[in-house]
Amino acid sequence: MPSKPRSTCPVCGSGDCRSFFELGQVPVNVCVQWATRREAIDCPRGRIDLFFCGNCGFIWNAAFDALRLDYTQAYENSLFFSPLYEEYSTKLAQRLIDRYNLRGKDVIDIGCGKGDFLFLLSRLGNSRGTGFDTSYEGADGAADERVTIVRDLYSKKYAGYKADLICSRYVFEHIEQPAAFLRTIREAIGDNRDTVVYFEVPNVSLILRDLSVWDIIYEHCSYFGMSSLRFVFGLCGFDVLDAYESYGGQFLGLEARPAAGAEPPRGDAGGIAGDVGRFVAEYRRQVETWQGRLEAARRAGKKTVLWGAGAKGVSFLNMLEAAAGTEYVVDINHRKHGKHIAGTGQEIVGPDFLRGYRPDIVIITNPIYREEIAATVNRLGIDPELLVQA
Fold first, then answer.
1. Against a cut of 0.85, is the pTM above it?
2. DSSP alpha helices (H): ranges in the chain?
3. Tens digits of per-residue pLDDT, 134-187?
4. 50 phi/psi in degrees, rounded to 5
5. Interatomic CA distance for residues 91 and 324, integer angstroms
C-alpha cells in the first residue's frame, strides 16, 4: 500500500500545504543504467505527488519512499565528461578556495559521487579531503593521497570529522528530511564558527517558470527555490553569506557559516506561489507540444535521437508516449555506453555512433550544452536538425 501523503511541511512544520502535481509509475532511479532493454523496462517504479508549503515555499514529493532507492556503485550521474561543466566546477572550486582561504586546509564533501569535485578541491587548494558516498568506485583516495573516501552515507556517527569547508552538491534534493539533515551538520560543526558550508541544488524556479519539467524525478524528493533554501539554513542555525543562481540558472549555490544564535527566519512563499499555480496547465501544454513534434517526425519517417542520458533525458522519454519511436540516446559519458535507459529501454551510445546512424533530428536535453553538442555534430560530418528542450 502506498504511504499516506504528509500534510505538514518537512521543513517548517506548517499545515498550509497542498498537492499540486502528480505522476504515476516513474523509474525510481534515473541515474542507474541497465544492461538489457528488458531489465530497463522492468526497472523499479514509484509515484510522484508534489506538495507545496504556503509558509516557507518548500516543495516535496509526499509519495517518496526512501526504501525504494539504493545508491550503489551502479549509480552514475557524473557531469565531468562535459568540458563546459568541468570549467564551471573548476572556477567554483577556485572561487571557494580564494574567498575562504582554504589552501592547505581540511575539506569534507558529503555525497561526493565519484570524487571529481573533492579531488579538484584537493588539487587546487593543496587540501586534505574526506568524501562520503556509497557510490564511489575505486581504491580509497587512489587519485590523490590527500583524499580519503568513506563508502557510507554521512550521519551523526561521523560528527568527529572536522573541516574548514563542508560542501555538498546535488545531495540535499535527495534528502527526505532536509532540516534534520542540516541540523546534523550544524551539530557536528559545534562552536567552530569559521567553518564554511557550501551547498548546491537544482533550482526549482527553473522547473516552474521555464518549464524544465523533465527535471522532476523520483530521486529528488526535495525541491528548493532561493527563498526556501535560505530559510532552511537560517532555521537550522546558519548565517547565509551568499546565495545565487548558477550554470544558466539551473543550480542554486549557497555559502553559509554557523550562526551564534540568530532569530528564527520567517517563511516567505510569495515569490513562488504564483509559479506553482500556473505550473500544471503549462506542463500539459509542454508535453502536448513535444508529443506533436515527435509524432510528426515519426510520420515523416525521420530518425530521432536524444542527446543526454541523465535525469532530463530519462524523464523526457518516460513522460512522452511518442518518444517510444526514439531508438538511441547519445551521451559523452563512456561509462553509460551499451547500457539502457530506465523505464523505456533505449540503448545509450557514444557520439561517434551517429556517423553511421545519421539521424534527422537530435533533441538536446539540456540547453546549456547546445554549442558543445553542435560542435561535436559538426565534427562528425552530419547535419541533423537540433531541437532544444525548454
1. yes
2. 37-41, 83-99, 116-125, 178-189, 204-209, 226-235, 270-299, 311-319, 353-357, 370-379
3. 878 765 444 578 899 999 999 999 999 999 999 999 999 999 999 999 999 999
4. -80, 130
5. 39
Domain regions of the chain by residue span: 292-388
* CB-side neighbour CA atoms (13 Å) of 148: 8
Cell 538536446 belongs to 364
How high is the pLDDT of residue 1? Answer: 36
Burial class (CB in 10 A: 0-12, 13-18, 19+), 282: middle
Are 59 and 204 spatial neighbours (Cβ–Cβ below 8 Å)? Answer: yes
Strand partners, 255: 198, 242
- At 199, which amino acid appears? F
Number of residues in the chain: 390
Per-residue cell: 17 = 500545504
* Chain Cα centroid distance, residue 146: 27
| Distance separating the N- and C-terminal Cα atoms of the chain | 35
| 201: nearest Cα among 165, 225, 184 | 225
Homologous superfamily of the 292-388 domain (CATH):
NAD(P)-binding Rossmann-like Domain (3.40.50.720)
The residues facing 224 across adjacent strands are 203
pLDDT digits (tens, 9 = 90+) for 199-231: 999 999 988 988 888 889 999 999 999 999 999
Q: Which of 5-9, 126-130, 299-303, 349-353 has the lowest mean pLDDT?
A: 5-9
Q: With contact defined as beta carbons under 8 Å apart, do 139 and 198 qualify?
A: no
